[in-house]
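dumping this here before i forget
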Amino acid sequence: MRFFSLIFFLLIQFGAKCTSAQEHFNLQDCIDSLARLHLQETNGVGFCVGINRNGIEEIFYYGSVQKDTLIFPVAKIRYPLGALSGTLTTTLFTEMFIRGDIGYDDPLQKYLPFNVTAPVYQKMVCKPLNESGRSLGLQSEPTVRFTPYACTPDENSLPQPILLCYLATHTSGLPAFPNNLKLSKVDGLLYGAYTQNNLYEFLKSYQLSAPISYDYLYSPLGLAILGHIMSIHHQTAFKTLLFDRVLRPLEMYSTGFLIQEDTSVVVINEYAPFTKSIGHRFGDLFGPANGMYSTIGDVMKFLSANIGNRGTELKDVLDYTHNPRILLPISESEDLEIAMGWNIRKLGDGERRAVWQSSTGDGSAIFLGFDEREKYGVVILSAYGASVKGLGFSILKAMKGTE
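structure:
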C-alpha cells in the first residue's frame, strides 16, 4: 500500500499545464496533466488513455487497477465496454442490412415467434360514456361531478409498428429497461437471470403511449432486442455473428463476452465510488447493449478503423454508422446528433465535429471519440465508476490544437 501511495503522489505532482499556447507544447505532458486531475476523482484507481494521430498510436497508463495492491493497468487487461457494446451491435446491424441479410426498416414483429406480439402505437379516440352529456356525482361528495370517458382505437388510423431501425437509433418508444427486470437480480448482478421468456412476456404486455420515432430515449432494452432479433433470424448465437462479421474483420480478438470458465482472461476489478468492487458479467441477454469486454489494444483498433487509418473490409459499414439520424437541440448554441451507435457534437469553434460514445457503469467508465475528417481520436478505459467524458473531450481539443 505504501508503494501505491508513493506512485499516486508522483502522478498527482507530475504534469504541465494543458494548453497548446505553450512555446513548446507537448501532448503527452498535457495528457499527464489532465490525468493527474482525474486520478484525484478516482482515488488513484487506474485507467488507460490511447491516442491515434494520423496512424501513429500511443498508450498511457495511470494509477493502479487494484485498490489495495499496486497493479498497473497493462495492455492485456480487459475492461467493460458499457455503451460501446451497443456501438458494436449497431455496426453488426449495419453490416447485415448493407449486405441484404436483414431489413433496415423491417417491423420488429416480422422476426418474433408467431405467439409473441410486439408493441405497436395505436391512436385512441375517447368519448363520454354518457351521451346525454349529463355528468355523474359521488355519493360521498354530491357537489363533485365527473363525466366518464371510454377510449377505443381510432378506426381511421393504422397501428404504428416498431421498426428495427428505431431500435438502433433509440426512437422505438421502448423504455430504457423492461419493467420486469427486477425478477432477474441474481448474485448482485441486475441482468444475470433475465431470460428470453422474461423478454417475451414484457413485449406481449407493454403498451406504447406515444407515436414512435419522434422522441429519443437511450434504451439498452432496444439494443438487447436488436441483438436478439439478429441472432434468432440467423439461428446463430449473437457472439458468433458479432465475431464473424465485425470482430474478426477488425482483428479484435480480445473483444466479446466473458466466459466464466476461462481463467486465462485478466479482467479489471471494477470500482464504484465509495463501494467495494463490482462483479463481472457473463453473456447475459443485455450483453449486446452493455455487456462486452475488451482491451485497450482492441479498442484502439476500432478507433483506427473508424478514422480510416487502418484498412478494413468494413470501411463502408463504419462510415455509414457515422451518418447522423436525429438532431437533438441541447442548448441555443449547440446541437447533439444521433447516429448508428454514435453521438456527434461540435469540437470547439468552427466546423469540426467529434463522433463519440461514452458511458459510466456501476464500476467502470469508457470514452471513445474522434475527428473523422482530421483522422485523430482518443480512447479512455477506466476501472472506476466516474465519468471520463470530460477528460476525453479535453484530450480531443488538445489534439486538435497540435494539428
